[in-house]
Each structure stands twice: as C-alpha cells, then as structure tokens.
Design a protein that fits this description.
Layout: E1 6-8, E2 12-17, E3 20-25, E4 31-35, H1 37-46, H2 51-61, H3 66-82, E5 86-88, E6 112-114, H4 118-121, E7 129-130, E8 134-138
Antiparallel strand pairs: 1-5, 2-3, 3-4, 4-6, 7-8
Length: 139
C-alpha cells in the first residue's frame, strides 16, 4: 500500500524567516534551508496537506500544471523522508493552506543540507563525558 500522506518528524524543529525555512534535525545534528517552492512545500506539510493536495496547491500557486511539478515535488518529498525530516503516515490536514499566487515560474525545490554544526547540535555535555575523568574527556 502506498501512502501519500506525510508527518513531520518529532525530532526536528523549524522556523520561518521571510522567504526561508530553517529546519534542525536534533537527532542527526544537521540543519537545512528551504527557499522558494521548497519553503512552500514545507508550509503545506506543516498544515498536514497530503501529497495530492500539495501538488494541487503548488500548481495553483505557480499557475502551472500538476504534471509539470509532480516529479520534482515527489523527489523532494522522498529526500525529506531520507533525511528523517518526514515520515510516511496517516496525518490529516489540520489547518487551511494560505492563498497565494507566486508571480515567478516554478523552480524545483532544493534541500540545502548543512552538517558543519552536527557535533554541537548533538552534544550532550552531561552524558557524553567520562564518569571518571569528567569534562571535557569524552567516554
């Protein structure tokens, strides 16, 4: 059975800044930047939209055909699943999607991945130190 519904992983936090969404995966320590259509996809996922509703929403926002955007959106959703930002599951739409029309042509969503702060973001200073030698000696 193939599901077309996604849930945002509980291990992540996200914040919107103007036209960008920053996501932090607390379990992996990676952080991500979403802009343009990627940010709009995330906004739809936060509202609990299914894959079908997302495609319809984006096609309407970019005034284009769903067939044109289907493959890049599906690829992007799989990338979010592979990064453990989403899980496939039965979440239903919890809030309405905002009405928007983007005056720009559709560009495929891009997931920008940053791993340079992974050690700091996954740092557990209390439990990762040696119980005998103490901080800063790791176990």
């Amino acid at each position: 059975m193939q599901t077309n519904q996604y849930c945002i992983s509980p291990a992540i936090v996200s914040e919107h800044f103007d036209d960008e969404v920053i996501i932090v995966n607390m379990s992996r320590g990676n952080y991500y930047s979403l802009r343009g259509s990627a940010a709009l996809v995330w906004q739809g996922l936060e509202a609990g939209a299914s894959q079908d509703i997302l495609l319809s929403y984006l096609a309407n926002a970019y005034s284009t055909d769903e067939a044109v955007i289907s493959e890049p959106i599906n690829t992007f959703l799989e990338q979010l699943v592979n990064e453990a930002l989403l899980t496939k599951g039965p979440q239903s739409q919890t809030s309405p999607l905002p009405t928007c029309t983007i005056p720009k042509p559709f560009t495929p969503p891009v997931l920008e991945i940053y791993t340079d702060m992974a050690d700091l973001l996954t740092l557990d200073p209390i439990h990762d130190v040696s119980p005998v030698e103490g901080w800063p000696i790791k176990k």
